[in-house]
Amino acid sequence: MSYLVVHPQSRLETLSCSTFGRHFLLVLVPKIGLLICLLMLLHEKGVQSWKSYWKTIGIYCLTIRGVPLDKLEILRVIFGIFPTYSDSPLPSAFDRIIQVGDASGIQSPVSFGGFGSMTRHISRLSNGINEALAENFLDSYSLGLLNPYMPNLRASWMFQRAMSANPRTGVPPTFINELLYFNFQAMQSLGDSVLRPFLQDVIQFGPLVKTLGSVMLTQPQILPSIFKQVGIGVILDWFVHFLMLGYYTFLSSYIDPVIRPWIKFFPGRKRYEVKRYLEAWMYGSGLDYE
């Protein structure tokens, strides 16, 4: 069965029902946000933004595939919004209901890579959901363990905040482009072990430390603009998640190998919980990246 529902945080989702023997579990999965796009198209600010974009594009793009802009025939205009949340992923708030994919907020706040995030987590989620159904661990606490706190996801939200247009901060108009350039320049100089995970939306502690250190040492003049753009409160909050990213990296690297051989001896519920904790450490530190 499938129903159209609206998430309390204004996400458009479908509600699907999965069955496993006598147990059932409702899984919230993404639905194409046609209504969202329509509302945005009708919204005055959205239309104004599009008009402003179309006027500005002529400054740096005189032709598209060799055709002058004033000669283009516009058949259809498509644009949309990508909401990001600083408290993602969203844990289960009710028994027998779990959010997956974009509905859980597990997509990257930087690239909005919902599909990439889902393919990365699908093995973890499918195994966990199967275990929850088989053992009837369908209370909100047990299902919430499938969408655990992930410090790398929380930390990446600040990167999105830093790259968001906010004219009230007073930073130079070239700030976002410079920030991107300096960061990618640093990652490229540090090699594929730093660059490739980031390009695939996997934030890891070691590469992040190297990148931030390189930017601060080589481009210190950009730091005041970062503080103005993001705000000291957000940076302090981010620093907590940054420390937790290092902590999860330690747990997954050194504590996981000690615990994992003993999981099979744990009773059912404890075994389920420990597996979820080990997964949270691995995925929350980005050490699932291969």
From TrEMBL:
Transmembrane annotation, as ranges: 20-42, 230-250
Domain of life: Eukaryota
The entry's keywords: Membrane, Transmembrane, Transmembrane helix
PANTHER family noted in UniProt: LYCOPENE BETA/EPSILON CYCLASE PROTEIN, LYCOPENE BETA_EPSILON CYCLASE PROTEIN
Protein name: Uncharacterized protein
